[in-house]
Recover the amino acids of this structure.
């Protein structure tokens, strides 16, 4: 459905995209995951024909983004990061304006507008001005707007950015519903790991304009190997304790008051690990999350201001959903 | 970036209607903008009109009546140039992006915008024309038709001008530059407030390059038979400026960065 080949986008000396190549299959939810500034939005803008690549190219729904922009635009729907509906108009009016822009014939226009309104659950608010909508409703209206013309490919740039947890969950529900009912291919960017894990069939990790890994969430997590145990001590970690001497331990990260151990088979091996350990305060155990995959791949924290909190909180949040 | 476009005329007309509809609805609902842009010309008309009018200028008519055509043009200048340069806001707040990913050509978007600008100008001018009746200005059918044509052409011209500048300016602060270096010179140099017959040569030369000069003069011809040039000459020059600015505008708009 989408083929990206050796895509490069330069701004003066800065390379926003540095030779990206990947393919997206029909009817999948493809996640582009990475920290802020990794190049996700630039990539979406190129695929949506708003930006020209410096080198390389891309084909969307069989049409070249450089040479057949109008055909590409007829094939895609886009929900941008920043709100892009007109907040002085009502929800219905926004949809009508866009239905006209896409040349949807009058006979089917009204029917299609009520269809998409129903899909995102906004029928009863359609005659309110968009400025009276909540952030989540606005985003849903934009999803409805993007789907009006039955696009083959649907781009969602950070669809849950700035939404509260409840709205985020309902947004996920709507995204899943769209794939089921509208049969579109979805490209979704996010820097929320659990969101990507939850929704995406495949994920491309993108950082510094490059894809550093691309696979299904479960395969990516398998790659990291085994389980994760975090042992917190009441005092400082005893420097003499060597966890790597066990065969079942893959990797150890030492912090001041804790160690994170990547290991196999926690259930049968934990007792050997904690034998002779003094001053243990807590032991936490988790399956690897995508964030752990990302940390391992990039050797770098996802983003310092990550709103999900620390390692275990993130796990807890993920587990609930 | 734009490939050859072969959209049927039904679709293009629909797109123009959509862009126009959006602008008109926004204009009618933004009450503060409507009130402010109506109030300013009236303030000029009555305060400057009566103020300077009380000083016995040698212009052959009431000063208030003399500047009346100028105030009509002033309203069009402000409304249209602002309207065009609002494109800077549109780009900042992503509405434009959602239009740019629709299968419409930049030229369509450009023309849709100018149609919106023309309509808002018409609203404003209608109000001023009604006020004119109160001032004792009479219009017959031909005069009204002439006013209507001049206002529409000038508005098209200046919305294009606003869009042209707006397409090059990326920061919101740039809007102030347009106000200082485009809007006010266009207004002051148009002869809206004074006759241009007896100006010093350098100043008169500059007024020749202001499309609003010909609009003010055409309206003065039409309403009071007081023009410096003939109505036909004014109309021809105005059309010439409009053509040039529109072409430059469409060119600029097509090469404008969408993001």
């Amino acid at each position: 459905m989408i083929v990206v080949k050796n895509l490069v986008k330069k701004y003066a000396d800065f390379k926003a995209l540095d030779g990206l190549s990947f393919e997206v299959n029909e009817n999948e939810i493809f996640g582009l995951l990475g920290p802020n500034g990794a190049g996700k939005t630039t990539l979406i803008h190129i695929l949506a024909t708003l930006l020209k690549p410096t080198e390389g190219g891309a084909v969307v729904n069989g049409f070249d983004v450089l040479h057949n922009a109008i055909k590409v635009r007829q094939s895609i729907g886009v929900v941008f990061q920043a709100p892009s509906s007109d907040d002085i108009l009502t929800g219905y009016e926004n949809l009508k304006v866009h239905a006209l822009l896409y040349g949807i014939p009058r006979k089917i226009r009204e029917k299609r507008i009520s269809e998409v309104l129903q899909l995102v659950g906004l029928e009863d608010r359609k005659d309110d001005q968009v400025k009276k909508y909540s952030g989540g409703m606005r985003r849903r209206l934009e999803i409805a707007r993007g789907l009006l013309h039955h696009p083959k490919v649907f781009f969602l740039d950070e669809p849950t950015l700035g939404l509260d947890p409840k709205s985020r969950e309902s947004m996920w529900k709507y995204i899943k519903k769209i794939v089921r009912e509208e049969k579109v291919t979805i490209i979704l960017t996010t820097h929320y790991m659990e969101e990507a894990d939850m929704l995406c069939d495949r994920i491309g990790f993108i950082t510094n304009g490059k894809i550093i890994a691309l696979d299904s969430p479960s395969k990516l997590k398998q790659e990291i190997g085994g389980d994760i145990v975090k042992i917190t001590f009441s005092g400082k970690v005893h420097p003499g304790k060597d966890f790597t001497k066990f065969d079942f331990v893959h990797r150890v990260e030492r912090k001041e008051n804790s160690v994170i151990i990547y290991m196999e088979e926690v259930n049968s091996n934990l007792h050997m690990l904690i034998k002779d350990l003094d001053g243990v305060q807590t032991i936490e155990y988790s399956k690897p999350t995508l964030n752990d995959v990302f940390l391992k791949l990039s050797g770098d924290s996802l983003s310092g201001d990550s709103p999900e909190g620390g390692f275990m909180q993130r796990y807890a949040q993920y587990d609930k959903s | 970036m734009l490939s050859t476009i072969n959209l049927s005329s039904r679709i293009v007309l629909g797109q123009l209607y959509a862009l126009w509809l959006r602008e008109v609805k926004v204009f009618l609902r933004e009450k503060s903008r409507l009130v402010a842009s109506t109030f300013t010309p009236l303030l000029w008309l009555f305060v400057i009109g009566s103020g300077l009018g009380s000083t016995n200028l040698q212009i052959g008519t009431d000063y208030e009546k003399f500047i009346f055509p100028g105030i009509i043009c002033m309203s069009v200048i402000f409304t249209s140039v602002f309207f065009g340069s609002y494109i800077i806001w549109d780009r900042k707040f992503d509405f434009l992006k959602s239009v740019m990913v629709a299968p419409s050509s930049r030229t369509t978007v450009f023309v849709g915008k100018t149609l919106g600008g023309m309509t808002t100008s018409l609203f404003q001018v209608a109000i001023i024309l009604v006020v004119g009746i109160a001032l004792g200005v009479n219009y017959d059918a031909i005069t009204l038709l002439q006013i209507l044509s001049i206002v529409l052409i000038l508005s098209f011209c200046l919305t294009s001008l606003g869009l042209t500048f707006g397409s090059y300016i990326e920061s919101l602060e740039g809007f102030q530059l347009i106000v200082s270096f485009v809007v006010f010179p266009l207004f002051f140099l148009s002869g809206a407030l004074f006759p241009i017959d007896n100006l010093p040569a350098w100043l008169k030369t500059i007024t020749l390059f202001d499309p609003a000069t010909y609009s003010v003069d055409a309206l003065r011809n039409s309403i009071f038979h007081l023009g410096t040039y003939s109505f036909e000459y004014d109309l021809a020059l105005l059309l010439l400026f409009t053509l040039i600015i529109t072409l430059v505008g469409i060119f600029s708009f097509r090469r404008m960065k969408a993001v």
Summary: The interface with chain A takes residues 1-3, 5, 7-8, 10-11, 14-15, 17-19, 21-22, 25-26, 29-30, 93-95, 97-105, 257-259 of chain B (CB under 8 Å). The first helix of chain B runs from residue 9 to 29. Chain B has one domain: 13-255. Chain B is about 75% helix and 0% strand.
